[in-house]
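Can't paste images in this forum, so I'm doing it all in text. The chain is below; anyone willing to post the predicted structure tokens underneath?
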Amino acid sequence: MDGSTKGSEEENWRVMWGAKVKQPCELPTNILKDIVQKTSKLLSEVRVSELQEKGPAIAKKIKVEADEKWGGKWHVIIGRNFGCHATHQSRHFLFFYISDVAIMIFKT
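Text version of the structure:
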């Protein structure tokens, strides 16, 4: 990989509230901050070895809270190795990492 490619990859991410957030992120800042901080807190209570077992419950907590706070139908995916193509509501998509755990959240 040449230096120009590496530089552009690094520019596509921004560290925010302890998470590495994929850019550009058009999610409103108040929602972004709330989701990142809530997810970080919940993941800090789980060991990486427990992620497969406890990840779905964490995703559900985040989803239910997002549905209640911001309306609509939110979807939350938490894992270490996944890919996705999804249609989402404009300005309501977030992909970020906390440590080596990937989190994707979007509203439909």
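Residues 3-107 form a domain with the Protein Inhibitor Of Neuronal Nitric Oxide Synthase fold (CATH 3.30.740.10). The chain has one domain: 3-107.
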